[in-house]
Amino acid sequence: MNVEQHDIGVSQVAAAIAEPARTKILCSLMDGHARTSTELAAIAEVSPSTASAHLAKLKELALVRLYVQGRHRYYSLADKRVAQALEALMVIGQNSAPAFKSHTPDRLQFARTCYDHMAGTLAVLLHDRMIEAGWLQEVDEQVYRLSDSGEALLEGLGIEVRELATGRRRFACPCLDWSMRRPHLGGALGAALLQAVLKRKWVTQDLDSRALALTATGRKEIGARFGLNLPLSDARRIKTSNEHHVGYLNH
């Protein structure tokens, strides 16, 4: 792709994202769930025909992917790069202030999905604790590796660390959290960590939003294994283990 083609491509994608209804559609898909055009029309507050036109444009620019199952047509983000771009735009889109104060709704602020890994206050606390303890080590600005003790910690959660390290996807990297404006853990390791805590029901995922809820068991186990004292103010958002919602992620 030459420079002129590159510039045209950037402008086309920027224009597509800039349309408010399309922005709502894309952001609603950041939880990893696939949705129908009818559901996305309701989210974007447009007619079904208008939503279909928006989705056709987003598909043309490879921002969304279409899945057909029988008579049903589902849409999801094309891949994790689209989610990462949206997260970055959310950071840029917020007005900077000398003392940053997040205006993110409480439930999304505390814990949510960022495509296929965890974001929000809880994710940033885990990231910072792993760095502080020396379990996660910075190779350069965009690459992390695990120490031997970090590898043992995560393998204790059932994560196949060495298998992840040999995959095609980036193993571990910082991902800027748009509500905290600090990094949380991304890459294959971040995705595996989210799946591990979901499997153990330490966090549960809403079916209709990006929000994650920390269970009472999760608060105890995460605190013990990672050496974290979660803020008492977050206790109001903790659900007991028998109050969970069953969530899923599309990869």
Please give the largest β-sheet: 3 strands, antiparallel
Order of the strands making up the biggest sheet: 1-3-2
| Helix content range | 40-55%
| Rg, nearest Å | 19 Å
What's the SSE pattern? Answer: HHEHHEEHHEEHEEHHEEHEEH
- Please give the number of β-strands: 11
What's this entry about, in short?
This protein has helices at 3-18, 20-28, 37-44, 48-60, 80-93, 106-110, 121-132, 148-155, 161-165, 187-199, 216-226, and strands at 35-36, 64-69, 72-77, 112-114, 117-119, 136-140, 143-146, 173-176, 183-186, 203-205, 212-214. It is of the alpha+beta class and 251 residues long. The protein has 2 domains: 3-78, Arc Repressor Mutant, subunit A (Orthogonal Bundle), CATH 1.10.10; 98-243, no CATH class.
Describe this structure in words.
It is a single chain. With 251 residues, the protein is α+β, with helices and mostly antiparallel strands. It is 45% helix and 17% strand. The protein is built from eleven helices and eleven strands. A three-stranded antiparallel β-sheet has the order 1-3-2. A two-stranded antiparallel ribbon has the order 4-5. The chain has a two-stranded antiparallel ribbon with strand order 6-7.
Give short descriptive properties of this protein:
251 residues, Arc Repressor Mutant, subunit A, 2 domains, 3-stranded antiparallel β-sheet, two-stranded antiparallel ribbon, 11 helices, 11 strands
